Amino acid sequence: MDFFDREQESEDLWRLFAKDNNVLMLAPRRIGKTMLLHKLADESEEQGFRGVVVDVEGYGEEKDFFQQLCSSIQEEIGAGRSLISTFTSRLKQAIHGDDTIKDWRQLLLHTDWQRFAETLLGTLNEPGDGKPLLIMVDELPIFIMALLRQHGTERAKSFLYWLRNMQQRYRAVRWLYTGSIGLDAVARREGMEGALVDMEIYPLQPFSAETARNFVQHLCVKDRCRIDDKALVAIMDGLGWLSPYYLDKIVSDACAQAGKTAMVTPEVAERSLEAMLDKSKRVYWSPWREHLDKNFPEPERTHLYTALEVIAADPTGAHRDTIIMTLNRGGEQVTGRDLSFLLDTLITDGYVAPCEGQPGRYRFVMNLLRLWWLRYVTCES
Ligand SMILES: Nc1ncnc2c1ncn2[C@@H]1O[C@H](COP(=O)(O)OP(=O)(O)OP(=O)(O)O)[C@@H](O)[C@H]1O
Ligand SMILES: [Mg+2]
Questions:
Q1: Which burial class, exposed, middle or buried, applies to 125 when counting CB atoms under 10 A from its CB (0-12, 13-18, 19+)?
Q2: The CATH number, out of the four listed (1.10.8, 3.30.310, 1.10.287, 1.10.3470), of the domain defined by the range 209-276
Q3: How much helix, strand and coil, in percent to the nearest 5, is found in the chain?
Q4: Residue 55: CB within 6 Å of ligand 1?
Q5: Do strands 263-264 and 226-227 pair parallel, antiparallel, or not at all (unpaired)?
Q6: Given ligand 1 and candidates 10, 25, 34, 54, which is best to mutate, with the most ligand atoms within 8 Å of its CB?
Q7: Domain boundaries, the chain
Q8: Which tens digits make up the pLDDT trace of 67-103?
Q9: Pocket-testing residue among 1, 4, 26, 35, ligand 1, by greatest number of atoms within 8 A of Cβ
């Protein structure tokens, strides 16, 4: 898969890093966060940095976090091996441990994570060649949620505050956190938003209409197809949210359906949009459902499902009064404040958006997702 565009975004982000900012980039599922991180890692040398991507999804202990960081540095960046070897000698000295232990992984077993991590960051803060390290942590919010669930709020909170302290102390190391859960909303709810105050928030948007048009044309050329302008508009309107992932899926289906004519007409485009709702396309949509199942505990999870069910029922959306009535139908006691938090979550995580000019009303962001939800999710839940 060729990486398309995101030039403005990477320019914006490099400008922020050059001005010593640390960045929190939050965006919904499947929008291209991880691919953008890898683009930044590729560009980092020419931008005067050393970029490393660390994926912390699936881990729930602080030690795992730093184990992943060390491995990524060692494997991904040119000077990584020598940096890690300097760090290993320093850590050995610091803990006066058994001299037979040579490897940082073993040292990690014999020390607490704070000492391990401070020695690591202290080493990374002294770039021999003057190139600061940019640590890009993918799915930090999922890691924080795992800490929270397994060890409680205090532990998650101290980890976030600890990261903030490290950012203040070791200024030659830059951080970019990304993920598909609204970490800012979670931090607000758990009373730990102070840990994020120094971060520059950068929301990653879907493609603009112009970029989406160019992307669709580019995909068609690759598939040796042409596309009618009306068909292009039908695809963009039908999707309603210009995520490169879904544009790619629809266009490759359309080019396949165009067959020998090699022309995507509006009829072909409509058929491809409809085909996205076929049960066989489950895997395209499952991240949205999994996101709720994996990351939200009960009763919040069921409340989120109920709110989405109400909002999906009408293409023009639903009013918060209707949502709260439905939520409380079975004797629940969901307050207006709880509902605001639920809606905040659904907005930051990319499911719904406020309807313009209609206060208190919310609609699905992506029309195809709304149709999928109606067809498969609401009838099952
Ligand atoms: N700039 C791009 N150019 C071309 N395709 C892209 C681009 N960004 C994303 N995609 C497509 O979207 C898919 C998802 O991208 P990516 O994994 O980066 O998204 P994500 O936001 O990290 O998703 P998740 O929330 O599931 O982790 C990619 O596999 C690719 O097909
Ligand atoms: Mg990702």
A1: middle
A2: 1.10.8
A3: 60, 10, 30
A4: no
A5: parallel
A6: 34
A7: 7-201, 209-276, 284-377
A8: 999 999 888 877 778 888 888 888 888 876 666 777 8
A9: 35
Give the residue, by CA position, lying nearest to ligand 1 atom 1: 4
Q: Does domain 284-377 have CATH number 3.30.360.10?
A: no
**Which ligand 1 atom minimizes the distance to the CA of 3?**
3
pLDDT beyond 90 at 365: yes
Ligand 1 site, residue 258, Cβ cutoff 6 A = no
Percent of the chain with pLDDT over 70: 98
Report d(CA 297, CA 34) in Å as an integer.
25
| Ligand 1 atom closest to residue 204's alpha carbon, by position in its atom list | 21
Q: What is the pLDDT of residues 8-48, one digit of tens each?
A: 999 999 999 999 999 999 888 889 999 999 999 999 999 99
Tokens 């001005």, residue located:
19
Fold of 7-201: Rossmann fold (3.40.50)
Mean pLDDT, range 97-113, rounded to an integer: 80
Name residue, tokens 């980039």: 25
Question: Taking Cα atoms as reference points, which of 63, 48, 73 lies closest to residue 136?
Answer: 73
How many residues does this entry show for the chain?
A: 381
Task: Tell me if 25 CB under 6 Å of ligand 1.
Answer: no
